[in-house]
Design brief:
By secondary structure, this protein is an alpha+beta fold. It has helices at about 5-10, 170-175, 185-195, 290-300, 335-340, 370-375, 405-415, 450-490, and strands at about 20-25, 35, 60-65, 70-75, 80-85, 95, 105-115, 120-130, 135-150, 160, 200-205, 205-210, 215-220, 235-240, 250, 255, 260, 275-280, 285-290, 305, 310-315, 325, 330-335, 350, 355, 370, 380-385, 395-400. Strand 22 and strand 23 form a beta hairpin. The radius of gyration is 32 Å and the shape is globular.
Length: about 575
């Protein structure tokens, strides 16, 4: 059986606030003084108390971490403040207070049991006023947990706030089944109450290494961290499926290990066979990937071996493993310190944070479960899609900004682990094919007007070809008549000019059968007919509304479970 500490290593969390930037604080481990290590990306240092709101700024909420496993923020429910884990892999809010019902809440007769990958919670569905960073939802549905079995409770955490789509919410499904429509997720209600604000959340998680002090990251809703605002120019990575997804799943186009690319496969229906469907989950500490991918990472490392008891690779701590993920044409290096973290149970041993296991929760919906060990190398934006004038929400997407320079990451790795840093680390981006749901620079979309015009041109092409054929026949007849005329003239007696004189040169302009001017004449652009084929015409995508925020009931297998 795996150590309890490893079970905790499967968990992670983020933080929430609307149109306000929040601090992300990683704290040292409670037992041994741990030292925060600043990443290659920019992030100011800040000292703070776990789950304590900064007194200098009412909108500043501290997001704390236990050894890079749990990111915790304060949420006020019914007037009482609770430290909660925030999780993009689920969609429900649940709180385990000192007693049930919670103070200043309205408890219903409906009960609900939510099972996670690790642990479960049971309680009544209740309503209360929920506040976070000065944002208030007056009647938020949540689970008032009377029984909860989850490792996070051992760390002073009182529950979870799910940051996923309402489609995944067990609370909304249960209330919808009873004829109610007020069970939407906390994020949905925040966005609906502020339709003019951008509907995205953004994370910059930080890593702790040996030493002392605290290091600050960031979490925000509706605005970018100033240090990472360039993410606005990053490619938009559509979810898979593009419209109305259940989870934050996207297509991974390539997995790069050193100078090589590892082949990708998928078990998800309708996904491209040479890609993988991955979910980026802030509620998971490690990454769960197919065995072939993990073996390609660690099997070539001298001294590395697979530990069947742990279910992980064990790697020499001074062995640097360089990997990167490719989405579309963009490559995102992963910091080597996060690829082989120090074991929680044995400080002399390092383990592979890419775990060769499948995840039963959400089976058939994704191939990889990507957690903190990857997200610490990225500034991650989850965009739910903006409301249009009619109140409908557009398709969701993600944007990523790489925070790691691979050469600097190598220096930071060997400064902590010993050995000599690598240099000139490069990843060769793979040529990726265009597919539904995948970001690709080769994809071309035509506007409705242009598509209609091309359709009309396509219908006229047979008539145009007939006219061209008739013109060619007339030209051929004229050439034949000219040849006959010249032959007859040469057969007669040549006549001398009566008044010989100097011949003046005349401008000569050769023209082709397409009427294009010869060399030397100023070029004037003329339209050229386009041959329409099925592969050159891309029809516009249909419009969709409110992905993940509809009132559709869930199927039995859709209930959120922790994929940590």
């Amino acid at each position: 059986m795996r150590p309890y500490a490893f079970a905790l290593a499967l968990l992670l969390s983020g933080s929430l606030t609307d149109a306000a930037k929040n601090s992300v604080i990683q704290r040292k481990r409670p037992a041994n003084a741990a030292s925060p290590h600043k990443r290659s990306g920019k992030a100011p240092f800040k000292h703070s108390v776990l789950a304590a709101t900064s007194g200098s700024d009412d909108n500043d909420v501290d997001l704390s971490s236990f050894h890079d496993l749990l990111y915790i923020a304060n949420v006020t429910v019914g007037g009482t403040e609770y430290p909660l884990q925030l999780d993009t892999g689920s969609s429900d809010l649940w709180v385990k207070g000192a007693s049930s019902p919670l103070p200043h809440s309205n408890q219903t007769s409906l009960t609900l049991n939510v099972t996670y990958g690790i642990g479960s919670t049971y309680g009544h569905i209740s309503y209360a006023t929920v506040e976070f960073a000065n944002i208030t939802v007056p009647n938020q549905a949540f689970i008032d947990a009377s029984v909860a079995n989850n490792p996070i409770l051992s760390y002073g955490v009182n529950g979870i706030v799910g940051l996923g789509f309402t489609k995944l919410s067990s609370v909304d499904s249960a209330l919808s089944g009873s004829g109610k429509s007020d069970g939407k997720s906390l994020l949905y209600n925040l966005f609906e109450d502020n339709p003019s604000e951008p509907n995205f959340i953004a994370f910059a998680l930080q890593r702790t290494t040996d030493g002392g002090g605290d290091v600050e990251g960031s979490f925000s809703i509706g605005e970018y961290d100033e240090d990472y605002k360039d993410v606005a120019n990053s490619p938009k990575i559509p979810t898979f499926p593009v419209s109305d997804p259940t989870r934050w799943t996207v297509l991974l186009d390539a997995f790069l290990v050193g100078s090589k690319s590892v082949s990708l496969t998928t078990t998800v229906a309708d996904a491209p066979s040479d890609k993988a469907v991955v979910m980026l989950d802030s509620g998971t500490s490690y990454t769960y990937a197919p065995k072939e991918a993990c073996d390609a990472m660690y099997s070539g490392v001298e001294g590395a071996s697979y530990n069947s008891a742990l279910g992980q690779w064990v790697v020499p701590c001074d062995a640097e493993v360089d990997v990167a993920l490719q989405f579309g044409s963009s490559v995102y290096p992963i910091h080597p310190l996060d690829v082989t973290p120090i074991s929680l149970s044995d400080q002399t041993m390092c383990v592979g944070s890419f775990v060769p296991q499948t995840v039963s929760v959400g089976a058939g919906q994704f191939d990889w479960l990507i957690g903190d060990n990857v997200m610490r190398s990225l500034y991650t934006v989850y965009d739910f899609g903006d409301f249009d004038n009619s109140g409908k929400m557009g398709d969701p997407y993600m944007q990523l900004l790489a925070l790691v320079d691979p050469n600097k990451g190598s220096q930071e790795f060997h400064k902590v682990r010993g050995g000599t840093a690598s240099s000139n680390i490069t990843y060769n981006a793979q040529n990726v094919s265009s597919a539904t749901g995948a970001a690709s620079g080769s994809t071309v979309q035509l506007s409705d007007n242009l598509a209609s015009t091309l359709d009309k041109l396509n219908s006229y092409i047979p008539a145009m070809l007939a006219v061209m054929a008739l013109n060619a026949l007339v030209i051929l007849l004229l050439i034949v008549a000219g040849i006959v005329y010249l032959c007859r003239r040469r057969g007669g007696r040549a006549r001398a000019r009566r008044q010989p004189g100097r011949a003046s040169p005349m401008p000569l302009q050769r023209t082709s059968s397409f009427g294009m001017p010869a060399v030397g004449e100023p070029h004037v652009y003329q339209p050229v007919s386009m041959a329409l084929t099925e592969d050159t015409f891309v029809p516009p995508s249909p419009a969709f509304s409110k992905p993940g925020f509809g009132d559709n009931g869930l199927r039995a297998g859709d209930r959120p479970k922790s994929v940590a």
